[in-house]
Batch of 4 targets.
Target 1
Amino acid sequence: MPELQRLRADHAPALLAFERENRAYFAKYVPDRGDAYFTEFDARLAALLAEQATGACHFHVLVDGEGAVVGRVNLVDVADGEAELGYRIAERAAGRGLATSAVRQVCEVAGAQYGLTALRAATDHDNEGSRAVLVRAGFVVVGEGEMEGTGRAEVRYRRAVAAG
């Protein structure tokens, strides 16, 4: 089972490979990051790590036994004891319960290590797999809306977490 790790600078090569290998797969569900994301990857990662150091965000990767990144689970926009959850699992690793396991782990970490009390999440209305992950991880539907910049319908979720 891959290990959930807090994002570090030394994850850069494996994280970039993960994003490149899964770009088309992810674009089926969320807006594409664009070419600039890849050409400016090192600067972007440095900015994310600096933001993480402030406590405004908490970034995580799922690393397999060979050191490859097979997923990401992030908590962003931390404020007032809450954060927005986002996650991605490599196409080759999808359908094996990794997303559910990783989201559950991050929910525990969110309360125990980061002192958060609730998480929010949203997913494409048509992404049944992602919706199932959130429900299995204890999230409940709190509304619907439109995915920013896409015009696609999204379902919004929320989950309380126990602060540590």
Target 2
Amino acid sequence: MEGTRWLDEREMAAWQGFLEATSRVSRHVEQQLKEDAGLSHPQYEVLVRLAGAPGGEVRMTDLAEGLFTSKSNLTYQVGQLEKRGLVRRRSCPTDVRGVLAVLTEEGRDTLRAAAPGHVAAVRAALIDVLEPDEIDTAARALGRVGARLRPPGRHAEETEGTEATEEPSRSPLPPESENA
């Protein structure tokens, strides 16, 4: 094809390395969460987002966008968490069409118990493999990739209708419960 900018050897190596690393890290984290906590990675992320939100609740639409998943997949994941008593849903008081996902105490306890194993898996699969300067470079580079593909007008730290909270990737629990 005329005008196609084919990947050179260096670029192809970066692309293939990215594909392999993301696939293997994702599988490693998913397996650890399933075995140790009985959670899927999306379910764990739902709990993290809710734990970091004011009042432990987030509109389902905002949660779906913040978790980079479809509304139908989020509905399924929240339904599974709801069956286990980790999350409940309630009507949004400011919007008759809105539904809030709310973290229960059992959900907070489950997250608190799952977080150390999850962090250990993330460290083993990614963080501890990299040199400190590589972590900074990866964070900047992947942040730019995410920003470029983010819907217009959206920022990494915001979700519609809510204040920015501590970024979930920094801590699986809100600051008041980190030492628990």
Target 3
Amino acid sequence: MTVTSDVAAPRRATADLLRSAFRRHAAGVAVITARGDAGPVGFTATSLTSVSAEPPLLSFGIGTGSSSWPAVSEAEYVGVHLLGDHQEDLAATFARSGADRFAAPTAWREGPEGVPVLDGVLTWLVCRVAGRVPAGDHRIVLAEVLLGDPTGAGSPLLYHRGRYNGLRD
């Protein structure tokens, strides 16, 4: 008996293989912000993870080549913002290289510990950076949640197959 398979031959691990695999993984969209010497910085992240409930810890990844990395590498505090499905434009702004991310129409204010806090998000958190772990061309930032507001209205924004999406009922 011969068994045939529709499975393609496995490929060796490359950056392209990893990107291709994770395009199939739906992820929530967050914006991470920090106060930098030259003003606020921020970037879109899909690598946000809850790490621990006691103490409340989360993690996110950031590339060391990112324009936000110099500020995040020195920041004592960061803001973490979970975006709603109505915030595709905001996610795209914070993902765009060279954009003035905090210019209008971005609505934000200086929050606790001087962290830039974005308006209209599902949830915002202010966190104290607990560690930065080298991970290839990235750093995994561990942060302890200090305070926040989880009462924003709406459904989460997701990233899947290179596009922003919302949940379907």
Target 4
Amino acid sequence: MGVTNTVLLWVLGVLALTGGVLVFALDSMARVTFSLLGCLVCVGGVVTVLGLPYLGVVIVLMMVMEMAIMAVFMIAYMMNPAGLTPMSMRHNTRGAPVISGTVFAALVAGIFLVPWPGRTGVRPRDSTFQLGMSLMEDQMLTMVTLGFVLLATMVGAIVLATRRGRYDRFGDELDRRPAEDPAGGGVGR
């Protein structure tokens, strides 16, 4: 690993750690959501720098969409305005530090005490292909096909759930001016 990658790894690691700490330090759900988003984007960057660009991009895309959906639902459905009312993300303030400190110490001890195996064979040219084969083996075509089927199902459900089309407000001959919303309450009624 070169100097640039090492510096980038440390910077992303510190930013991820800072974002994780801010999740418990901030006092509103909206701010916590965006802090967690920043933390997880940095984690995706770390995975990318470590040589798994596909997995890093998947982490970033997945977390951006998850946090965006969380923010939208928070703004739409929370009792307080947009999740900005002060609240606390800290629970079990006495037991949590002991439990998390113990788990952290055990994980660090595991890193140094476990005999790590040496590399056998040569590093694959395409780590993305190697990761895909390790995860999916013979089921890769099935999963790709399933992805397209799920996408078609979502698009079809949206189309079927919508009563009117894009141009219905202009009439059958597309000559209604001003446009009138067939659902009611639009211009021209």
